[in-house]
Design brief:
mainly beta; single chain; 51% strand; ADC_dom_sf; Acetoacetate decarboxylase-like; 3 helices; 12 strands; 12-stranded mixed β-sheet
């Protein structure tokens, strides 16, 4: 897989896991920096675009999940997921920071929590492909939290390449994620081809994915993008020394 577009070199260690992401909706809302800053662990810095912070809700499907040199993991190689994220940076390596990741497979949820210190939750998710329009319903299980998402979305343009410096590039071209465990910060390196984005339309009927944090999304419509398919390689966690 090519890596010349990546802002810094790939790790010298071999990648650990491969995944394929399908039918992603990127729904992003602008959020005031002061509303997000309390949720970002130090020493991570909240990343902003032209002074504006952003929060994203991203429903999609995953498949082909496998460890290096091994076939797809039985019973956990395919499931739906929805995540809530914002953008952070440290050591000049901008990346993704997750508020939550809801997925349909309990074993995958427990494994990701243990291996990557990510805030995964078990959820009931239904995804229906209605001739290229996707109906997506998610409800978190077992926590008593009102974490719901219900909407339909579809692409409305041909795929295009983003331009460096543009907002759509800034929101999507991220090549690491960050997680925390106690006062320790970890980075997970990621490699994929540049995102083949499409403009999108969506009707979001219910979205309380940020309610548990007391974060109210703006009333205005989100910025929407769609991507059909992307193969992704991930490495193991490395602690960020600070």
């Amino acid at each position: 897989m090519r890596s010349d577009h990546r802002p810094w070199p790939v790790p010298s260690k071999p990648w650990r896991m491969k995944q394929i992401w399908h039918n992603l909706l990127f729904a992003h809302w602008p959020i005031a920096v002061e509303k997000l800053r309390p949720f970002i662990p130090s020493p991570l810095k909240l990343d902003v675009h032209e002074g504006q912070a952003w929060i994203g809700v991203i429903p999609f499907r995953m498949s082909g999940i496998r460890l290096r040199y091994l076939p797809p993991i039985p019973l956990t190689s395919k499931f739906a997921e929805i995540n809530v994220r914002t953008y952070v940076t440290i050591d000049d390596k901008p990346g993704v920071y997750f508020f939550s990741l809801d997925a349909t497979h309990l074993l995958a949820v427990k494994g990701a929590k243990a291996l990557y210190h990510l805030p995964y939750y078990w959820a009931d998710i239904k995804v229906n492909d209605l001739n290229g329009t996707f109906m997506y319903e998610s409800k978190r299980r077992g926590t008593g939290e009102n974490a719901l998402f219900h909407g339909i979305y579809k692409p409305v343009s041909t795929p295009y390449a983003t331009q460096k410096g543009a907002l759509d590039h800034w929101l999507t071209e991220r090549y690491c994620l960050y997680s925390s465990y106690g006062d320790r910060i970890f980075r997970c390196e990621i490699l994929h081809h540049p995102w083949p984005l499409q403009h999108a339309e969506a009707e979001i009927y219910a979205n309380t994915m940020t309610a548990g944090y007391g974060i109210q999304l703006p009333a205005g419509p989100p910025i929407l993008h769609y991507s059909e398919r992307l193969e992704v390689l991930t490495w193991g966690l490395e602690e960020v020394k600070h």
